[in-house]
Each structure stands twice: as C-alpha cells, then as structure tokens.
Amino acid sequence: MCGLMAVVDHPEAANLTYLGLYAQQHRGQEGVGIVCLNDDRTFSLKKGKALVSDVFRDYDFSKLPGRTSVGHVRYTTAGGSSLDNVQPIFAEISKGRVAIAHNGNLINADKLRRELIQDGAIFGTSSDTEVILHLIARTPSDIPLEEAVISALQQVQGAYSLLILFSDRLMVVRDPAGLRPLALGKLGESLVAASETCAFDLLGAEYERDVLPGELVVIPMDGKAKSYFPFKKEKSAPCIFEHVYFARPDSRVFEQNVYSVRRQMGVELARESHIEADIVVPVPDSGVTAALGYSEQARIPLELGLIRNHYVGRTFIEPMQSIRDFGVKIKHNANPEVLKGKRIVVVDDSIVRGTTSRKLVSMLRDAGAKEVHMRISSPPTMGPCYYGIDTPEKDQLIAAQKSIPEIGSYIGVDSLAYLSLEGLYKAVGVEQSKMCDACFSGEYPLGTPQQLVQIKQEQLL
Amino acid sequence: MCGLMAVVDHPEAANLTYLGLYAQQHRGQEGVGIVCLNDDRTFSLKKGKALVSDVFRDYDFSKLPGRTSVGHVRYTTAGGSSLDNVQPIFAEISKGRVAIAHNGNLINADKLRRELIQDGAIFGTSSDTEVILHLIARTPSDIPLEEAVISALQQVQGAYSLLILFSDRLMVVRDPAGLRPLALGKLGESLVAASETCAFDLLGAEYERDVLPGELVVIPMDGKAKSYFPFKKEKSAPCIFEHVYFARPDSRVFEQNVYSVRRQMGVELARESHIEADIVVPVPDSGVTAALGYSEQARIPLELGLIRNHYVGRTFIEPMQSIRDFGVKIKHNANPEVLKGKRIVVVDDSIVRGTTSRKLVSMLRDAGAKEVHMRISSPPTMGPCYYGIDTPEKDQLIAAQKSIPEIGSYIGVDSLAYLSLEGLYKAVGVEQSKMCDACFSGEYPLGTPQQLVQIKQEQLL
Amino acid sequence: MCGLMAVVDHPEAANLTYLGLYAQQHRGQEGVGIVCLNDDRTFSLKKGKALVSDVFRDYDFSKLPGRTSVGHVRYTTAGGSSLDNVQPIFAEISKGRVAIAHNGNLINADKLRRELIQDGAIFGTSSDTEVILHLIARTPSDIPLEEAVISALQQVQGAYSLLILFSDRLMVVRDPAGLRPLALGKLGESLVAASETCAFDLLGAEYERDVLPGELVVIPMDGKAKSYFPFKKEKSAPCIFEHVYFARPDSRVFEQNVYSVRRQMGVELARESHIEADIVVPVPDSGVTAALGYSEQARIPLELGLIRNHYVGRTFIEPMQSIRDFGVKIKHNANPEVLKGKRIVVVDDSIVRGTTSRKLVSMLRDAGAKEVHMRISSPPTMGPCYYGIDTPEKDQLIAAQKSIPEIGSYIGVDSLAYLSLEGLYKAVGVEQSKMCDACFSGEYPLGTPQQLVQIKQEQLL
Amino acid sequence: MCGLMAVVDHPEAANLTYLGLYAQQHRGQEGVGIVCLNDDRTFSLKKGKALVSDVFRDYDFSKLPGRTSVGHVRYTTAGGSSLDNVQPIFAEISKGRVAIAHNGNLINADKLRRELIQDGAIFGTSSDTEVILHLIARTPSDIPLEEAVISALQQVQGAYSLLILFSDRLMVVRDPAGLRPLALGKLGESLVAASETCAFDLLGAEYERDVLPGELVVIPMDGKAKSYFPFKKEKSAPCIFEHVYFARPDSRVFEQNVYSVRRQMGVELARESHIEADIVVPVPDSGVTAALGYSEQARIPLELGLIRNHYVGRTFIEPMQSIRDFGVKIKHNANPEVLKGKRIVVVDDSIVRGTTSRKLVSMLRDAGAKEVHMRISSPPTMGPCYYGIDTPEKDQLIAAQKSIPEIGSYIGVDSLAYLSLEGLYKAVGVEQSKMCDACFSGEYPLGTPQQLVQIKQEQLL
Questions:
Q1: Chain B touched by C134 (CB under 8 Å)
Q2: Fewer CB near the terminus (10 Å): N or C of chain C?
C-alpha cells in the first residue's frame, strides 16, 4: 500500500509532488519522501515518518529546488523503527545517482536478496525495492541505462509500479501484469505521473492515459519521452481490490471510475442477496458508495445510522478500563434515533478479522436495531495479498477459517451475505479472471513466494 | 463555537474529559484545555492551541489526577496570538480557586468589561468569559457561593452554557433562553455533562436530560446535586443553527436527534423547490444528510459527485500560482464520471460569502454537469450571530447584499432555492419562532450589542 | 532570580531584546517572554517555558514588530505547570493596556493579595508581580498614570526592579532599597535597560548609569525621559549575593565590575584562611574567579583539577543504578593526573545543602588527592532570601544547622573555611552593612514576611 | 571529528552508551546514533541530527534493550541534509547484520568507492565508512569473519578507529598508525570502549589500556576477547592535534593526560616567546589551560578578561544590521575593568582563518587594552588534515598564505608568536616526529589523497 507521484520539468515540481501525495494520503499514512533532481544534476531529498501535512508543515520548498521531482507515501508493512524504509530510496551506483519509488511487492525479493548478499551486496533497508536498485547497479557498465533497467526488471517477479529518477532522465514502469495502477497526465507542458488520478485533479492536471502493463516510459530531461515494451507478453492482472476498497472513489483506476464501479457492486449485491429490511446503513467511509447502489437497487432507504469521527488520528491515550469497545467507538458512533426498532442492512466493503464487524454489530444492537443483516460488497477474503496490499496472513482471515454462517454467527448478525466473484466482475465490467482476484479466489496469477520456493526445491531434486 | 465536557467523581476524570472533548472536536479546533480538581483541593491544568489529539499526544494523565474534571474546546473568534484565551480560565478569587468554561457569547460583555476595568479590574484575556469571573469575584464575601454566581449571571445578557468548578463543587448552568445546548448524563455512579450527547456515546455514558434553560445545577463534591431556577422566566430560544450545521448528526440536541432533523430539512426542501434533475449531489460533509432526505422525497438518485479529502489539515504550503481554486480543491474533488451530461441538484446546508459555492459550481461544470441547481437546506443567512456562532458580519453575507436570483447568478447556477423558515421549523418539529433563528430572520431574541448601546444612549437623553 | 531587558524606539526592538535576554540567560532558565508595543498602540506577545534560544528558535520577529519592547527571563521559584507565570504579564486595566516584567520579590505580596482578592480582584497567576498590576488598576481613574504607579508601589514592600510598558510610555523602576540591579544604556539614539550590563555589551550598547534606588524613570514614546524619586528616603541595600554568585563576571552591577570583586574575594579569602597546599582547584564555573585571586594571593598554583561538561542540559535519562553520584558526575569530572598525591585547596562560591560539595570532595579523594581543604568565597549561608534569590529554607541550609567544623566533617574535608563578612565587604569595596547581606548575617533590611505577620498580630493585640 | 562508545554485556548498555557519548559531545555535535544487539540477535537503532541530549530527550531506552551497544557522535564534514550520514551505519551483508561506527578519515576512499560502484555496489551514504562495509561484504563467504574484516581493512588507507558490531561479536580496531585514539575499560564485568577516557569517568568505569595501533580486538558475545595484529608494522603516528585542541582536558589520550600536556604547552610557549606584559588573558575555553601554564612560567598574573557565554547554541536569529561583529560577541565578551590600560598576552590554541582572532583583538582594544600580544600554544597551522580533523583547505589557512608578521598585522596585535614544533613535542613529552603533526609540518605520514592519485598516474605512464 503505497502511492507514487512525479512531476517533470516544472518550476514548482516538489511543491506539486507534495500536493499530489497529499491527495493520495489514503495510500500510505506512515511515511513520505520527496526527491528532486536539481539543475546541476545533484539530488535533494526530504523524508519523514508522519502524514504528508505533518512532515512538510512549514517546509521551505526552496530546499527542493529541482524542476523534476519524485515522491512516495508508504504504509509500512514490515516493522523497523528507522527512517530507512521511507522512500524514495536514494543511492549512488555505477549508473550515477538514482532515486527509486515503488508501489507493489516483489515475490522473489527474498531469494534475490539472499543471492545478492551472498554476492557481496550490502542492504541498508529491509525493503524489496532495494533489490531492484542492486540489480540495476550490477549490470555491466557498458550497457545503456534503459537496457540495464530492463535487465534488472526481467529478474524480478511480482508487482511493481516504479518511478526511477536518474540524473538525466526519469523512468516510469509498470510490471507486465499491471498489478498496481500508474497514470500519466499533463500539467501545461509538464508531464506528471501518479498512482491515482485524484492527484491530477488537485493539481489541475489532465489525465492522459495509464502506463500500460509491461510498459517502460523513459523521459529524458532534455528530450521526448519514449516507450518500451521489453517484457514477454503476459496475461494482464490489475488488482481488483483497488476497486473494492483501496483507491479513492474520485479516481480513475485501470481506466474505470472507482465510484461508479463501487456503486455498481452495491447494485449487484442487492440483486444477489436481497432481504426485507427497513433501512440500508453503510459503514462509513468504506461502505458508503456500495450502500448507495444497494439502497437504490433494493429500494430500501439509505440512512446514516453509523457516524464516523473524522478527526481520528492514530494515537490515543486510552482510559484504563472504563470504556468497552473503545477502539471502535473512537471511530464510529451509532445513531439510535435512526436505528431503533429497525430491520437494518449494513453494508461494508469487506470483513478481514471479523473483530471490528462484531463490535459494530453489537453497537447497532445496543442502539435498538431489531434485525441486523450484513452485506459485503466483495467476496469473502480468503487469502493474503503478495502483491502489495497489506492483508493479514491466512490464519488471521476469518473467511479462511470459518464458513459464512459461522462468520455471521461470530459477528452476531441475523444474516450475512457476500457479493459473488461473478457479481464483482459484473460490477467492474470486466470479463471474469481478467484481473487479479487472488485474495478472493486463491488463484495467484504470478504465483506466491511459497510456490517459488517449492519450484526451486523441485528443480533441485 | 465551543464545546464543553465535565466528569464528576471518577478515577479517570481527566482522561474521560479528553475523550469527551475529542468527540466534540468539531465544536472548536483552535484550542483545548482541561482542569481537574485534586483531592487536596488544588487544581491542575493543561492547555494548548491545537487539536485535542495533538495537545494531548503522549500526555501523561497522571498530571491531571483529580476525580473531577472540566474541559473546553474553542474556535477562536477574536484574534490574539497568546495562549490566554484558551479555556477553562483559572483564577483565584474571593470565593477561592475557580475554573470556568463557557460556550456562548455575552452581548453586554463590552459594557460590563469597561465598567469593571473602570472600577479597577484587570483583564488578562480578551474573552467575555472573564467578565463572569470578575462579577462573581466582586460579590460581597459574606454572600453564599450559589447566590454569588446567580447575582453575577443576573448581570450578564446573552448566551451561556457554563461549567464552573470551585474547590468543593461544580456548577453547571444554561442561560435563561437556553441558546446553547448542554446535556447531563451518567457514567456508572459518575455524573457527566457535555455540549453534545455524542460525547456520552463515546464514553458509554447514558444521556439523562438537558440542563434546562435558566437552570443552575450545583454538584457538591460530597453530596447530592441540586437545581436552582434563579432567573426571571424568559422565552426560551435554543439556536436552530445547531440543527442546520453545527452539531454532530449523531448528537441529541435540544431533545431532538440532529440527523433526523437535518434529513427532514432535505425532505422539506424537496417539497418546496422541486426541480427536474438526474441526480442529487451533496456537498460533503455538511450537505450529505439533507441530500439524503431531498433525494428520497424528490425520487432523484443520490450520487456522491463531490468527494472530500478527509486528511485536510489547516496549514498548506500553497504553490505560487500553478493551481486555480486551490483552496477548494484541496478539500473537494468532482467526479466527472458521475456528473458528465447530468442535470444536478447540489445540496448544501448554507451559503455564507458565496465564494466557496461559486468555486464548487465551477468545478461541477468543468466536470461536465449539464445543469446545476443549488438547494440550500436552510433559509438565506441574513445576519451575524451574536450568541456564539462564528458568522461573518452582514456586509460579508451574500444573502444580506443580494437577492436570491442575484446570488444564483453570482455562484453560476441554473437555479437556486433555499428552505423557507416555515419549512425549517417543520423539519425541526417545533412551532415557529420557538427557537432563535436570528441569523435567518433578523429577529434577535436577546437583542444585539448595538441595540444595547442604543437603549443606553436613549436612556441618557 | 530573573533578568530584565528593554529596548525603546528601535526598528529591531524585539530582536535586540531577545539578544539581551540571551546574554542574561543565567538569570533565569525556566521561561522567557517578550512583549512589544506596536505603532498602532496594540501589543504583541511571545512567551515560552524553555531557554531563550529554544523558545525563539526559527522565530519570525516580524510577529513582534513594535519599536519598543520589554522582555524577561525567569527561574520559576513557585510550582505551577501552566504558562501563566512566565512574564511579562499582560493585562487590560483602567489605565489601558499594560505589560509588566519584574525582578525581585515582594514580602507583603501575600497580605496584599488576600486583601485584593477579598476586595473582588481575580488573580490569574501565582506571581507577586500581579499584585502590582492590581494596585495600579485600582487607583482612581482621574489620577495621572505616574501617580497611579507611584501610589501602587508605595503599598508594596520588598525588592523590585520593574519594566512597565503602557501604550504610550515605558516606566523603569528600582525599589527604594535598590535590592536588585537595573542599568540604563544607549544604543545609538535608542534607550536600553537591562538587569546586567553584559546585555549591553552584546548589543554594542553603551552603559550610561544605574537606575538609582527609589528612582522611577518615565520614558514617553514621543518625548524625553524624566526621573522621579517618589519614595521616602530609605537605606539602600543592594544585594551582595549578586557579586558572590549570581551576576555574570563581565557585568557591571551596582557600579562595580563583578569579576574584579569576585577575584578580590579570593584574595581576601587567602588572606584570612591561608593553608599550606600544593594546588588551588576551583569548582567550575562558579569558583573560578575567586580561585584566581586565592591562587595569586596564596602563591599556590591554580590547576583545573575539576572539569565541567558545558553541554549539560536539564533533562537526563538516568541509568537505573549503575552510576554512583550520577548527578554530580554528569556536570563535573576530576582529573587524577593533576590531583594525585596533592594537597588541594578547593575554592567554591558557597555551600548550600552540602550534598554537592560532599560528592565533589569524594570525587577529589577518589582521584588521589592527599588533602582537601575547602575555601568558600562568601560567609556561611545562614538564611533564605526573601528578596528574589532562590535559596532554600533554613532547615535545608547546612550552615544554619551545623557548625563549620561539623560541615567540614560532613562534606569530608581536611579543613573548611569561609570568607568573613568583613572580608566580603572589603572585597566589594563597600562599607560594611551598606548592602543587603541577609543570607549571611540574618539581618533583613526590609524585614521578612514572618515579621510582617508578627507586626500585624501585635497591632491587633 | 567523531566520538565512539561501546558497552558490552551490560543490562543498561544503550543508556550507558548514551552517557558515554554525552561526555564526548565535544567530538561531534551534528548527529548521534546508538545501535544495540538484542538477545534474539536482532539490532535496534536510534539516530538523530542534534545534540545527544536533544535526540534522546525523554527517550524510552527500553526500545534499545540489547546488552551490547555501540554509539557515535559526528561532526558532519560533508554536506547532505539527509539523516543517512549519521552513524552507526547498519546493513545486512553476506556476513549477516552489522553496524559500524568510525572515527577518522580514509584517504583512498574515493578510489575504492569508484571501484566498488563500478563493480556493482550501491552507496546509500556519502561517508567513507560505507566503503569499509562494502569491502567486508565482498569477501568470499567461506572466509571467517575476522579474516574478512582484516582483508577489508588491508585495502583501506588512512585513519580509522572502528567499532564493528556483528550479531555474535564486537570488533574494536585502530589503524596501524594509530592516528585516532581508542581506549578500553572495565565497568564491573562489562567491557567498555571509548574515544576518550572522560566517558569512562562519567560511567565510573576504569581505564584499562589503549587499543594499540594496528590492533584488532574481537569480543565474542559468549567468550573471551582476543587480540590480533594483522597489519604490516608501520610507524605509529597518533594525532598531536588531539592534545592541542580536540580532546577534553580531563581525558587521557595516547596515554597522556591532556590537561597536563596542554598546560605544559603554555609553559613552553612562555619560555620561547616571553614578553613584558601586565596580564595573561586566555581565549575561553580553548586557551585556558595553556594560559595557566604560560602565566605560571612567565610570572604574569592570569586574568579572565574574555568571558564566554556558555548557553551559546547553534542557531541565532541575527539582527539585520545593528550589531557589529555579532558572531564573535554572542560567544565572547571582553571585560574592560580588567583590560583597561593593560599590556595583555592573549593565549589561544591556534589560529585558523584569522577572522575570529582579528575580531577578538579588536574587542580587546575597544575594552581599553594598551598592548595586545598574541601567543598561540601550537605551531602555525599550515595544511589541512586528511585523517579526520575538520580543518579548512590550504587557501583558507592564514598561516599557509601569510608570514607570521603579516598575520600579526592582519589580526592587529602588537606581537604574535607561535609555539615551535620542538616546543610542542617537548610539552607532549614525546620524541619529535613520533606523532602525526602534518597540519603543522606538512609531512603527512600516510600520504595525502592527492599523492595517491599522483602515484597512480605515474604508474600508468
């Protein structure tokens, strides 16, 4: 879970990059970094482990003067208290100075890392992104830069949308399966790139097109951009979960408007699992759009029976024992006036561990709900994501451990239904299995790290 | 615009007060303070000029050990860069030590302040709340505490919900007109008080009743609470704008659920000024609840065509000139997919200066809206509030300067309609003119500061 | 223990005040505040509870634009976690707006405070300075400003050097006994005032003269300064402890250079209590100057056998139990090479509780000192100061509890001698008992708070 | 300019390391880092770019739980605004995880860096220390750890005292010439290491011995320490400037007490260049110890005619134009009472650019000095240091550009004399040219980076 932003050849490149990251704050709240390439080919860098607005509070952007700038917001999946995992990663390598920002996750990173280390590499971070840097660094020095990057990327497997800034050109890449989004736009004469188009909207930039799966766009500082398609043709597999939950509703992702897709999920959900009820109540903010669709299709009025506190930060001083279900309450509150005596359809985007849902349901019942029917606008989450979304391991996923009725009983609802995989694809408007739906189907288009290890072991036999 | 919170006789009083203020953060984002009364009758105090979660980040609540605690969030109406205006105000006076927290605004504060200063008082803040403190301090020392407070309050005119903490009792007061809300609740054996009941919900406290207009509740540290009604009977006039905009939808205010009232405003609005359209689009977050009602009544589907960035903080490093309408964009984004070619009803709660509405409308048109009809879920805002809401002066209010068609033309809509005052009262479910609607009607139930001056001058003739 | 600074009519008044306070940081490390009077007669204010350089780190002095500015550094004697006791205190009173900064301590503040409170005053701080403000505020409004201030000051007893900034003039006052220092200087055309002349040196200002005991200098913003001597002639009693310890050696205080006086104390000390020894070792930094004089007079070479860590801040994370005498060690270290086998005269300015001296002596012995003779460049500290120096109460003062031989035995020295009171006056070059030497002699020239109470009680009989 | 600290096998290792760095703060004020090795063989790390006491203010040392800990304070010689150059540097390499802290400077780092980069290495810092890490990482994996480190160090030229912490052992190394200090001590059963022994004194640890030039001490976590001397025998050349200026006077460095050596420099200086004068005035703090020796030898009384402000921090908001020589004044003040009409010998440790000396002399003259004779307790600084002291380049060094009389005339003194190189060695008590005196003599015992390049070029011919 990360967000990317680049601005090429603009007098306020870093300031705009900051705003583009700000618009994509939902893609990563743990850390932010911006690197710019200055006129004299040096790089300037600012990183921090906090929200974009906090790291850059009162920041003097004249310290990031370059006309081309690359930024990153991250959600730290791995631990590590140091600053080092905040991206862009900056290094000096055989090809000169380079900064790299990565959204996605490599599945053969551990193996490559071990090999590289065995071969004398030193790793300063625990990030898989550093593997890419080493692979580029180790290509023979007489190989042109594009080929070096291509050769490096041909060795990695997994999901990657990348911004790679060298001292004379920016490279923008999307992996052959196109798992994570990456879009190109124009701001006047300047080229911009972002994970989500909502960043363009804030800047007043115009969306041009998505970087294509397997495309490498090379943008020289003093010339015209050029596209390469250096990878073996692969089945494209953009991540369907971006539509279900991750992307901002006002973004265009994989050439589809997220809001419209998400609303249609609610429509399909109502079609599949209609139930008699008095009101539809979304879990804010994640369930609101689907609930709208559900309400319309089911002809059951939408009511905001759960209210979200939008000032919620990340650190609270909890009272010792006074407040039951504190964690849920600090974020949500139920509105008894709306709920009392009502049969309720609660709509949310997904159930992960089940603990939050369970508390919300109990909150609804305490507020007087007569019946609580939960409807989930995606299929049961059966497996972790190895391609860049921070889902817990299988043993933490309630749907991998219990049947749907068991889940319903655990979270305390009168009925529980999920959207089917068919329904989900219908909502997205894409032919089934044309996207990565591994977290729902268990079918991992690029394989899993475990499979890689297994293949290796089998080859050894 | 302020929020109050008190917890009486609880081992974690200050921590709970902090959470209660946190739930009421929307009532004041500029400053927060908590005072507690310790076992040895000393007071401890913590204040700061930032969000509740920032001022108390990593705070060690053992520094506020007392079992009774009073807190305040404030929106600084007046200027002043010092910390002094953050409440509770703490002082030593003839009645001992005292801390006072105030929601509301006195209309004769300037006059009283001048008189008190003339009479030798020193004012350390620019707040009208300090006037009350001086009046209490100046009652003869042989007068009992309750009478001293009553005598002080009989001299002030205006809106006040007050928490006054002495070293042996807490007083909870609402002005005779009951302009600002104030509710009492129970948390186990402990009494709690708050401006809005959403604070009770977070703590798991139960709402008991509103403090009545003109009621003074005295809660001794070692005895039973007692109520006084010391003021001349006055027409009660609770602020209708709490329902329109200010209170959180999940709160109960003036014995009405805010969400239900606000939704009904949308219903009435649709009844009064229906228009043919394809979709209803709320301005988030303020217009969402009314839009729901409008959509239902008008049978026009609701669409979230405007998206709000919930990470918006208060300080941004704006780019120099690159981004048109930056201020609006950082907060809202339009969703062209939803809006393109559509006839749109935009619902918002009010129009103040008209500048934001104008930018939003332009954003909707840029996104391809065919028609934009704005519907406002309250009557035109014609005058400032002198009773505690931070509305600008008359010459800044577009509705005080222009006719409705002129406003519509200024903000660039195809049609504009406001909810009528009748419709508003109908939505609230209260007989007309039973509340303070001065900002809409120009009828100020307690008069204006200007009238006070005038009366004074007439008396001098 | 506080320091004052004022700059009148200078385009960079607040910035210079900050530097003047910075030079006087040793007079108060707990809090700092600066108020300036702007062209439009408003005041701007910045306060904080930290070192001058920390509170004003990256500060934008354009927020303190006024051409006349008053500042204060303070050492919080009383408790209180709030910001309120940081000076200057700012208030609105009958005479308009006023800011006051105070060095010294009033002995009848408690009585006046009680009377004022009884009479309806509210006190927002626990500081005795606020008493002065109330007394000024309560003079009848038709009395001219100078007379109001004079009348107020005639009611207070104790030590006060004051800067009082009104919206049209600055008043600079020293109490009739002249207990605390206050000097006037010139910076080009601008008048400056400071507790110590080292502040003038930093600014490049020239010392003009001391404010005289009992003098009130009134400096109108638009006219010429004028002096008043409104008090009954009293015996002047400037504080001799400023010379012993408190003032910076490069300052001129009470018309004497502190360094020269302090060095002479060492000379007198050597004359009075010479002993055979190999080296003279000062306790840095307080004992260095006197040790120089001692060494010269005694013809025993000076050696820096104790080294001070100048990076010592105020907060340390102490290890649990590993380090004996941690508190002393973090500040001082002994140099065994210099000390081993030597007979040592250790020179310090005073012994308060005896605990630090004891640890230092033990450190010297551990480093191999053969004999340790302690010589103190002032008489035994017998009583607390009621006039503004932060000395502990009598029961904490080792010299008030033990005889000199007992003290010597407690701190573990081979011999101990103090400078006599006669010797001290000889060093200062002032006739005996012409200064306040209460902490040594027990003779309080202005009486003690206890005596005031006693006199009152006797009058009641 | 850096300081090292290590604590092995102690329950409060990181807390003690922090204190040891605190005692060595003078060796590097720009950044500090501490790494500890935890029981489970993971590492924890805390770094920051500020003073030790600021980076670790309120720090919770339970976040650095390991029983063995390594720390570093640094003075950033190269630019770079990122955190990356703060040490210890932590990385994962073929030999496992490793943290490295370095005091000194390599002269062939640039060449090695270029070669390593050419060979595929990525550099995340601009520090020469990272070169060592890469060299270790690249030794074949079957080579034992000690040999790998030895082989790496055999490739580097220059000055290095190193702490290298692996997951099962700590290595402590000093380069063959022993340029920078490094001492070993005992704290109970725990071994400690530090650049200067003042760190031991604070902890109450006992100095055992210096790490010898060319010695590698390997301390396994679960066994006994073992020494290796893997390098070709070289002439040892400890840095004489540590004695002149850099080390704390209470430290033992290269088996000599710094204070005693520095004092003797003053004695030798007085012998060599005696002049008739009234007083000896040190430039505090650097000149005080030598001035003591000078004063004693010359039988001219020492006077503290220059006072230093010990609250000086690093950031000041300078006034625009009001104060002449602001930079010097904020740090020092002259005491006219002491100086007026006097013939003065000013003693300082060195003159670098001459600008500060010039301002100090002008300050002394303004204070009334009749004659100013400057005496420097080291020879003229003729060349930069390539071995770890931050001296400016030759064209910035006044002594490399001007003759002594010219310097005297530039800084405005009546006479100027330096200590001779012979005198300096006499003071240190070491045979001449047994130490590195390159900054004075221009004879670089390990060569210069320029010579390395030249040799290389000659070989190519």
A1: yes
A2: C
